[in-house]
Amino acid sequence: MTYLVTSKIILVAVLFGALLSGACAEEEKSLTFFGWSDQHIKTDGNTDHVLPFVEAMNVMQGVAYPPDIGGKVAKPAFVLGAGDITEWPTHASMVAYETILKEKLKIPAYDVLGNHDDGGNSPSETMRRWAIKRHGSLSYTFDAAGIHFIALWSKFDPTLNKPAQPLTKKALNHVRSELAKIPKGEPVVIATHLCYDAMTNRDELVEAIGDANVIMILGGHYHKAVVHQYKNLNWVQLPSPKSEWTEFTVIRIRPKRLLALPYDFKKKVWVLDPRKSLDVEIKN
Question: What is the pTM of this model?
């Protein structure tokens, strides 16, 4: 009898250990990062509207996810910005954002430029030079936790006088070129300024992606969190500090699941509106 009881205890301990080990392995393979867009640093360098978002991201690690998701927010690998860093690209706004990244934000950051950063009808090289100095190019790539990220810059045409525009042929060709370089099946995230609703040639982007394993397309431009699933792709629009909402998006990528969930740091609540959040299986 003692032998049987001991054996059962050992079996339960082994099974529990295996489950715990599996959960730990899953967590080790996951990637957590934060997403925001359209910071619109003022031309005089004023950042008062942005700093509360920075402070909130700095202390987000350890916040509990909703009960049906479970767990807590892991240490973020980086913050990803989808463009329009500046209201317009003055030297003061550039210096102000650089100061935020160096002195305020305690997390590494990647950014892609938006149409405001380009200067609109008064073209400026200020933010272009900044981006090239910081990232090596206006469009660039980086890797994190086995995921390939393509930060995609697409020149905006201010003469069209429309917020919705196509990605340029140069940008689409860049996507094709980068995807051709990586091993087939490697997970990819594309980040660009134009969101799903603002991208008038999204089908051309889908065609450029082809059968590559793009698990998410991040955008900004329209200042609020919105998600779409279109042509078997996940499109996540990131929120802006220049809006009525106090949200940024927490993104967690696991081997088989993608979570993109906005967090309202002023109300201290997760935004569970299905129009603004994703919790989906990664099929490939």
Answer: 0.90
